[in-house]
From TrEMBL:
Transmembrane segments: none annotated. PANTHER family: WD REPEAT PROTEIN, WD REPEAT-CONTAINING PROTEIN 6. Together with methyltransferase FTSJ1, methylates the 2'-O-ribose of nucleotides at position 34 of the tRNA anticodon loop of substrate tRNAs. Required for the correct positioning of the substrate tRNA for methylation. Required to suppress amino acid starvation-induced autophagy. Enhances the STK11/LKB1-induced cell growth suppression activity. Pfam families: WD40. Keywords: Cytoplasm, Repeat, tRNA processing, WD repeat. Interacts with FTSJ1; the interaction is direct, and required for 2'-O-methylation of position 34 in substrate tRNAs. Interacts with IRS4. Interacts with STK11/LKB1. Belongs to the WD repeat WDR6 family. It comes from the Eukaryota. This is tRNA (34-2'-O)-methyltransferase regulator WDR6. GO terms for cellular component: cytoplasm.
Amino acid sequence: NRNERLPLKMETAALVAPITALELFHDRFLLSGEGPVLSVYGLQPRPGVGASLSVLQHYRIHGIRPRSRDAVFYDFAVFGGKAVRLVGLGLDPRDVETPHLEVLGPLMELQDWVLDVRWLPADKRPLLCVAVAHNAALLLDSAAGSALVQCSCLEGCLLYSALLLVDERWANTVLVGGTVFNQLVIWKPGRGDQTINPGHKAPVERRLSGHSGVIFSISYLQEEGYLASASDDRSVRVWAVGALGGPGGRCGDPSPTCLRVLYGHQARVFSVRLSAGYVFSAGEDGACLVWDLGGGGGKVIRTLKGHRAGGVRSLAVSGGAGGDDRWVATGGADGGVRLWKVEDGVERKEGLEEKLTDLKFADRGLPKVVCVAGGEEGNVCWSQFLVCTDRGAVCRYSDGSWETLWEGPPEFHSYSVMDTTTVSTVTLCAVGNISGSIQVFPTSHPLSGVRLAGRPGKIHSVFWKKATDTLYLLASGAEGLVYRWCVDVKTTENGSSVLSAVPLPAFLLPLCSKRWLTAAVCLQRHSDQVLWVCGDRRGSLLLFQEDGNVELSRTDRGKASEGSRTDGETRTTLQPVSCLFGVHGKHGVTSVCEHQGLFYSTGKDGCVRIFRVSPAKPESSHGELHLEVLRVQRACRGMEWLERVLILEPEVPEDVGVEGENVIGGELRENRFVIVGFHAVHFVVWDPVRQERLMAVPCGGGHRSWSLWPSHPGLWSGRGALVFIKQGAVLTSQPPGEMLGCAGEAGRTGGWSLREGIHGRGIWCVCRLGRIEEIGTQSGDSKTFWEIVVTGGEDTNLAVLAINAASGLVKVLSVITDHISGVRALTATTQAQGEALCALLLSAGGRAQIQCNRLLVVWDRHRLTPSCQVIQVASHRLDIQWERKRNRHKTVKMDPESRRFFCFVSLSLYFIHLLLIFCYHLSRLFSVSEAENLIDLLWETFYHQRCVLCVATCSLQDDKACGKRVTSWRSSTVSSVCDRALFNPSLGCWIVTALNFCPHTTFLLTSSSSLVSFSHKSSICELKLKPTSPLLFWVDIVLRIDVQVLDSQT
């Protein structure tokens, strides 16, 4: 029966919410509460995802309390809100590392908020002691779901936190509550049965005062008699209270004292845990601090950070008995779960911040430039450094002592630039001066060096660059000339090194105020074609092209072979074939690198630009190549000085023999990378996807010479060390000669990511793009699909997610950081390109900003995971012209344009896209052109008198529209619109009822006086938009479109 309505049932396939509860159990399992869902993770042999189960319906889980039933089955009391439920965890005897969850009883709903639950161990029945928010306690029979005993405190105040200390009998139970009056009260619920107070109310036994804010968390260490409290006032207090609970229900010392007041968090402290000799605290600032209560005097000895904005909402710490390492688990507001292993009594570093070692530079002048030298590629042991001083001397640090390798003539005094490289086992050093000459020598035989020169003038920078089989030396001189040599190193029979330098045509940089080279990379595309991508001090990216076999004159070859001075006047110059002028701002480009066909550049504008070398456009008159920026990645807030990009090592080894492995939908795939730069006074290695620090060194800021030594050149495997100059001293982040610090090792700093975080703040919009299928992992006929979803929120980021609906697993594929304010609206047009899902994503938010990105999502058969490539298409902001205006600080801006876009709809016309955007009572129409990478404002109106809250679109198909109706409402009037006929001009409807262009589609545009309907049965050549009144907008489609006017007034 068509009129029969079937019930609609919806189930949660995946949930991303703040982690509000964590519990470590027997150092084998970690249980977490995310909304009403209870999840269990196995810790042995390696942390991983176990099982999940929805437990508390519409309540959030705030606590998990375990009880062992036997060797393979355990009971848990799960509570949150006003509910308590029992859950069982079982182990398969054949696979004890794979747990499963099951609900043991009905949901028990109480009349008050539950703050803590404990098992009463002596009773055979499953009895629970429950602390509730109005300073009361219950003895709950979980089998019957009823309260056996209820007792309140004489001080009937509201509690923000509570801690129950239970013994074998209910009469021995002690409750510690954190009141709304910033105090801790200790009382015995069992005493209420023996007193004469009305309603069996128990008195307060002890009262602890000192906090200036409400108390969020309480922890007790029985062995030491310490009580810790975490408060809204950003402090943690440790109290000496003595013995609490146990036989007789002891309430501690009559006069408890405060031992420590620990200040270290930058915001509210949500959780605190006591362990032998240590205090663990977690707060809204996103940090978990480890405090030393012993000889450290209450100092922070370690900082654990791994969550996005929003803070750490839950904390769990294992016992660490007998000197064993402790497991520490943190759950964030971003929905992420992180796990660390904290060593006991060994590690004394403050989190990611490295201890500094002074190399005691000798008195040979002030150090100006420092470089790491020595060692073979891939060697993780570092011990040699080269320093150039203001007296023109090059000194080497090796085996704990300094020695002078080379002393330059007077023209190298007061100013010099230096760079080093290692070829096989030979370390080469190049030093440039203010007069235009460069000294090149091997560090093993400094006297066998050669002197190179260009035109007279200052050498701004020198670079060593390696190609496939060639070593290049670049020197940026005066008047924008970049001199180049091809350097060859030969070793004689007696072990000495002989250098030969062959000059190459110089590069000529474009005219600008700061005309020198700051970065370069070489790419050999073919045997006869070499490409150079360079960056200059003006912030421009340049592309130079040359033939691979550069012919030189016989005179130049003779001079080069003799190692004598070569004159730069005879060289020809190469002009850039493509230039992206000032893309990194006026502070310059700091680095350019290439990996698997894509280029990555950094600058002091806080951005990483991913770009490629593309063929010339068909409409171009030249047949030359050009640089094309694919997208821009920003670092964290406040990190503007970026220095380098290091590619993250893949999770599995790459098989270079697989053809097309690095291609998604015909586009080169972007690799995951980390950003190296300066954040305030720290040198930082930053992961832009996980939004976390991987390494931090307090060096003092970016205005200094430094050198980073990763374990693998150009890659970041979690190991690295820094050497830098500060106030005339040469400092390192760890002693030379030691193995490089494991800054990314899970057990020490970065931890294991059991669940990835997404947004630390509110999620404001969601857009589903489609789904992709797993390939190469299914067994039988079953298919597994991943839903691709994009979310935008208050943290100004867009997160591209892949969700496995079967397992509830959520993977973060990419984080887009283009917006400067919160993202309010999302829409997308999608299409399939073979196995890839292609989507044009449009996002809008604060500051009247629109971003357009092309997403290519595909299943990676090599890594067995979804992969996403982001290409930036266009952006638009009405303030952009104002920001480019000179001397704008001297004028008053009449329209500050602080509006936020709340909702919009999109319209695709094959070659162009239309956006109808609403912001309060303002409506705007934009066009998006992918070919021109442009978003244009076409028209705007202030017709609406109130805020536009929602916009909807619909589509009518010609062959299926018979009998279908579209209904529009305005005020209390209702109009029924049938196919092709159907409008009452007196209604005055202002709704655009069809905005989806596809073959054989009927479009309806309505206004106060007309309805236009036209069928699209052919390709569209031209689209014109004309603002007319009182129409919302008018669409005029030209070329082979049959338009039927249904109203003669139109």
